[in-house]
Here is the input.
Amino acid sequence: MIDKAREVALKVLYKIDKDEAYSNISLNEMINKNKDILNKKDISLISEIVYGVTTWKLTIDEIIKLHSKIKIKKISSWILNILRESIYQIIFLEKVPKSAAVNEGVNLAKRYGNKGSIGFVNAILRNISKDDYKELFNEKDELERISKTTSMPKWIIEEFKEEGIDNNKILEICKNSNIRPKVSIRVNNLKTTKEELKEILNKEGIKNKDGILKDFLILERASGLENLESFKNGLFTVQDEAAGLTSLILNPKQDEEILDACSSPGGKTTYLAEIMKNKGKIDAWDIHEHRTKLVDENSKRLGIKIISTKVEDATIYKEEYKNKFDKILLDVPCLGIGVLRRKPDIKWQKKKEDIEEISKLQFNILNTCSKYLKEGGELVYSTCSIFKKENRYIILKFLNENSNFEIVKIDKILKEKIEDTFFFYYLVDDKFLEVYQNEKTDGFFICKLVKKGNR
Here is the structure.
């Protein structure tokens, strides 16, 4: 009899593989489809396997290569993913006995393979041990070793190297990209206080503690948050603290007119509104209508009334917006290398050639939207990526071509907004906040610019 949880996990992995689907979307769809036959323990195991295999795919495939005479590309997707999910359990899940992982893998092969593949799966899995992972550390080429042991594509490691990051730091970044992220939430001060929310969450069975930022809490678990009454009532928003810092650094004031030109799904936009005490005006743009609706939904849940959404292409200049806004937030599209621990799919979907394309888009958005800022107005440029080509180099190029802008040092505002000195470790010359992913936050880049002139 096939274990239902492992079979559902296999179907998710197969869909991700064949359709290049996002793991979180495929996972949620498959769990909802099978919710009548799954319990909490099943869902937990399915999520663990899908997330784990997606994160460690490169490393697992290297282990398969150690034992298989058949090349990875020649193995059917069903059988390959049976091997992947079984090997993940053997190597990385301490609580799963090897015998269980092997037997369940063989059972799945009986349903999704043929007589030959059943023997193939059985032979490989019975030979797998944790020593196979240790064997990868014997790779002599240091960058290859980092790639194989941390499941990081070689091109990403080479990009870090090209940007002048030393091997020890590269290894640290790659290791941290595999750490399961803690859940951080932002208190909606329009509806409650941090202390009140802490009490409410405790009553709802959610353990919590203070975050780095004053408006944030760290939760012990993430599952089912959307079902909590506190969430439905708009008392909090799920948001990484590095992302929240973007809105704090922009530092909007009540009654100002703000533009968030790349706003969806609205985490930063709604934080701006909360900081402004729901007084003023925020224009929230996105290029797709369905994404502006996400901002509207979040605003409604949080009780925010000052956000006006609009479908706009931030790369196309419109004279009607010239010198219109007091402050502008540009959290531009990026490769997302700073959020691999949340979205490991990115590692397998992006490639080195994408850097040039995305950096052109980023510069275009910055160059276009900067014209919408009033003299003396301030603009924050941010990404959830950590490549300098998407960040620091974009800013330097922009300043070289726009002498009417200059960088605002952000050390003072950091001291005003947070008590913890954590983010100061990543501050470069008080100008750039370059956060590498770590145990506390995602990787992020933030820089603040001012348009010269008197307001």
About this structure: The longest helix spans residues 40-67. The chain has a mean pLDDT of 93. The two ends are 73 Å apart (CA to CA).
